[in-house]
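**Paired protein data**
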Amino acid sequence: MIRKLTDTKVNKAKAKPDGKDNILADGGGLAIYVTAADGRYWRYTYRYEGRRQNLTIGSYPEIDIATARQQHMEARAQLARGINPSAHKRMMKASRTDITTNSFEAIAREWFERSKTSWSESHTVRTISYLERDVFPWIGKANINQVTPGDVIKIVQRVEARGAGDAARRVKQ
């Protein structure tokens, strides 16, 4: 594939005088869109299941030519495997958000905050201590849907191994 753009061409590119986007093609569907208002954006235009699609790679200069070309080649490889690069990017972004909001630790802390109003002070302190010391380091970052009974058993066994039987029973609860 012959690459047509250089860093100098991209730096000097301006929007068209009539205010429309200036599109500079690099080859293989990769192009940089130069707009009057917003700047420069890398886009990959491709066909998936007979329909034209666009994948926005990022803005220039945050994404330089080499990085844009690398991401373009990765998107082409996904397309060759039958994966829609745009849908894959949306799914990955959603899963990153899902991981932080649905982590075991986030859900456990939310439950703790709701429940602690009806608990005694000593029970509240003991419960958060067990979670922070024995549970969160092992499964805190895991998605709540991926935590298995086996994970809980391993945590309880670790607590029992240090000789804290009562703590192990409470952690299991």
